Structure formats: structure tokens, C-alpha cells
Amino acid sequence: xxxxxxxxxxxxxxTNDTTIITDPHDGRSIGIPTPSATGDIILVSHNHYDHNxxxxxxxxxxxxxxxxxxxxxxxxxxxxxxxxxxxxxGAKRGKNIIYxxxxxxxxxxxxxxxxxxxxxxxxxxxxxxxxxxxxxGGAYTIDADQAWSVIRAVKPRIAIPMHYRxxxxxxxxxxxxxxxxxxxxxxxxxxxxxxxxxxxxxxEPEVWVFTL
Length: 212
Prior knowledge:
The protein has 212 residues and is mainly beta. It has one domain (2-210): Ribonuclease Z/Hydroxyacylglutathione hydrolase-like (Metallo-beta-lactamase, Chain A), CATH 3.60.15.10. Helices cover 13% and strands 33% of the residues. Strands 6-7-8-9-10-11-14-12 form an eight-stranded mixed β-sheet, with helices on one face. Helix 3 links the parallel strand 10 (131-135) and strand 11. The longest helix has 11 residues, at 144-154. The chain is globular and about 40 Å long. The two termini are 22 Å apart.
């Protein structure tokens, strides 16, 4: 049984025997609560302060991943895919790493601060995905319309929006509504955490909306 918990922004905690944390922030510098978790594996998509606060979530023995090398740690298979934080091949905001990882037979894909639509080569590298964490807030990342284009291309079983305006967040990005208004998937409001197993994945695609 896997548990997924949201710590705001792009920071998720995925736990079974091993705890994976994505794109940690320190809370304070972006106006939302500090993540209350420590990770065995910490994935950092790019080196910006609202995604790379490793010290907030690390513990002795934490493995910090900041590159696209393929590896397996504690039975978790991890593959990084290099992309960009903008639509001009990194000229404005540099590179971004998409992380595809498999835990408990469930395939996750965390898009980090993706700033552009995905080309065919990248889609092939991503392959089949059960759960997709996707930025939707625009300004620094893809926006709601682009997010839906990416979702339709990747075809995950579950799409989880992230990197959007929530109460307290001090960044000028859009909220959740523009994304949901364009939606034709079933929407589940799941609270702060959700348990999932491979054989419980939905047959029809769903959007899961987490709250802090």
C-alpha cells in the first residue's frame, strides 16, 4: 500500500517501505507550511529555492537525486528525463528534470517545473504512467491549457495538479480553477493524503485534487 501526501507547491511524499519526497521547499520563504516529513529518497527537479530545500526534509542516509541518471534505490526504479524550465530551451530559466519512478509496481511521473509541451521523444521516454504530478499555474511553468495538452499526451490513470496558487502562497501564479474548468475527467477531492495500490487504479482517468 502506497500513501501519497501533499506538502504544498510541488512537494509530495510517497511512502511504502521507502519514503520518496519530490521538490522540497522550506515553507517559510513561499508563505505556506513547512513540510513535516523526511525522505529516504529526495528528488530535485531543478535548483530553485522553492524546489531544492533538501535540508528541510533530509535525514542521515537520505539519497539526494539531482540528475537524470537511471538508478534503483531500495527497490525504487528512478529515471530522470532532461527538459526545460521555459519554452526557449532553457535560455530563461535553465533545465528541468522530469522524474519517472516505480514504487510498489505503481509508475509515477513528476514533471517538476516543466515549461513547455512535450515532444515525441520525451513522451516515449516517459512511456506508460499511472500517476502524473503536473504543474498548472503558468508564469514559471506550463499553464492550465498546456497542462491538459500534456495530460492528453501522457494519458496517466491519475493526474495530480501542483504548483498553483493556494492560500498564503507568495508567488504570482494562477489558482486551481482555470485547470478544473477545462477538465472532462472525474475529479476527486482527496484531502491531504491518499492511499493507493496498483490493483485499485481507476479504469477511467481521474484528477485528484489534494489540499494542505
